[in-house]
């Protein structure tokens, strides 16, 4: 990495993106611009989020999304903000969003990129002032530019991601992303309106002592998950569960730990969505030396068949994920 000397903690996101542009095999500047567009939308959502309690944007929007979830106002606002940012720049041809039933075809056939996005992750935490997030995956379209987008441009496995990231609107706001050459984290400086590199080259601990799972669903777990969580307790690990995937993932990435949203008897595919939740975090996990699996298979290798398909997710420190996986397979 020849740009290694040119950035350090405190480098702005803009400058970092420019310096790292050479990491892309087909560097044309468009992916860089796309990342900047996403960062701008994140700043706007951050602004809305931090004043949510004052500006009457808490609470339900009054509609149900395609998942059957009641949309919160901030779900809708964040979706609009990201849609706008992604459609104005010209780099994107299609968007998949949690809050949109169908693929959004931007009718921009010169756009090289497809984006899958969870505009606002952790909806149930908006009104109670707890960390929420945004998750995004970026793919290069498979069919040539100039032609209409096809299903194969959208239904790509996670291994095909050219970049992925998340924004955490937490005690501070952070943007963490990868372009397949390691993971870097940026902290937002509110008064300057800039993201600064604060967590260069994030490396996940190989092991940890935190487990994160919604234990309210325990009665629905398969034996392997039951046995694994029992073992966590035997070892006196700490239970930590925020209920915002981004925040739970981020904590475990930095501190070491495992997050599980397993298959349940009622929902054999779990709850989380492959295209705009699991894949992005799986790429980041792997790039940081952690792992992500659905219990038997690497998340990134799952071939999607539908837009909003769900997947069980076990993600975090590699030794923990391997152990959980082996208990699942031996008790299956
Ligand atoms: P979203 O708010 O984008 O719909 O995602 C909700 C997800 C995720 O953020 C979280 O980890 C999980 O749902 C929590 O589910 P439970 O309430 O079932 O634990
Ligand atoms: Mn939702
Ligand atoms: Mn989500
Ligand atoms: Mn969401």
Blueprint of the fold:
Blueprint: H1 13-20, H2 30-50, E1 60-64, E2 70-72, H3 73-88, E3 92-97, E4 104-105, E5 113-121, E6 132-140, H4 151-154, E7 161-169, E8 173-178, E9 183-189, E10 194-199, E11 210-212, H5 223-234, E12 238-239, H6 245-255, E13 258-261, H7 274-287, E14 291-293, E15 313-316, H8 318-331
Can you characterise this structure?
The protein has eight helices and 15 strands. It is α+β, with helices and mostly antiparallel strands. It has an eight-stranded mixed β-sheet with strand order 4-3-5-6-7-8-9-10, with helices on both faces. Helix 2 (30-50) packs antiparallel against helix 3 (73-88) and helix 5 crosses helix 8. The structure holds 2,5-anhydro-1,6-di-O-phosphono-D-glucitol and manganese (II) ion (3 copies). One manganese (II) ion is lined by residues 69, 98, 123. Residues 12-200 form the Fructose-1-6-bisphosphatase class I N-terminal domain.
Give a short overview.
This protein is of the alpha+beta class. α2 (30-50) packs antiparallel against α3 (73-88) and α5 packs across α8 (318-331).
Largest beta-sheet characterization = 8 strands, mixed
Please give the alpha-carbon distance between the first and last residues. 44 Å
Percent in helix = 25-40%
How many β-strand runs?
Answer: 15
Specify Rg, calculated over alpha carbons: 19 Å
Write down the overall mean pLDDT.
94
The class by helix and strand makeup works out as alpha+beta
Subunit structure: Homotetramer.
Keywords: Carbohydrate metabolism, Cytoplasm, Hydrolase, Magnesium, Metal-binding
Domain Fructose-1-6-bisphosphatase class 1 C-terminal: 205-328
Family: Belongs to the FBPase class 1 family.
């Amino acid at each position: 990495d020849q740009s290694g000397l040119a950035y350090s903690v405190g480098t702005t996101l803009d400058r970092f993106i420019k310096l790292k542009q050479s990491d892309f095999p087909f560097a044309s500047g468009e992916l860089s611009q796309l990342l900047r567009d996403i960062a701008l939308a994140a700043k706007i959502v951050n602004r809305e989020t931090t004043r949510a309690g004052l500006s009457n944007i808490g609470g339900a929007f009054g509609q149900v999304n395609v998942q059957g979830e009641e949309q919160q106002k901030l779900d809708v606002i964040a979706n609009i903000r990201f849609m706008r940012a992604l459609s104005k720049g010209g780099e994107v041809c299609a968007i998949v969003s949690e809050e949109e039933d169908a693929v959004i075809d931007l009718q921009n056939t010169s756009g090289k990129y497809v984006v899958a996005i969870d505009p606002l992750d952790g909806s149930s935490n908006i009104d109670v002032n707890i960390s929420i997030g945004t998750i995004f995956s970026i793919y290069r379209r498979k069919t040539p530019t100039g032609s209409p987008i096809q299903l194969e441009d959208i239904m790509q496995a996670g291994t095909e991601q050219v970049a992925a990231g998340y924004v955490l609107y937490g005690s501070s706001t952070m943007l963490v992303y990868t372009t397949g050459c390691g993971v870097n984290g940026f902290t937002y400086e509110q008064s300057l309106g800039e993201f600064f590199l604060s967590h260069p080259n994030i490396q996940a601990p190989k092991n940890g002592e935190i487990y994160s799972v919604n234990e309210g669903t325990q009665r629905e777990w398969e034996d392997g998950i039951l046995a694994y969580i029992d073992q966590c307790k035997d070892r006196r690990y700490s239970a930590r569960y925020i209920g915002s995937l981004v925040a739970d993932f981020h904590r475990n990435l930095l501190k070491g730990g495992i997050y599980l949203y397993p298959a349940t008897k009622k929902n054999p595919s779990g709850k989380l969505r492959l295209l705009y939740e699991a894949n992005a975090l799986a790429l980041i996990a792997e790039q940081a030396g952690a792992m992500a699996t659905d219990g038997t298979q690497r998340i990134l290798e799952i071939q999607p068949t539908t837009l909003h398909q769900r997947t069980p997710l076990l993600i975090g420190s590699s030794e923990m994920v391997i152990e959980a996986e082996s208990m699942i397979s031996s008790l299956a």
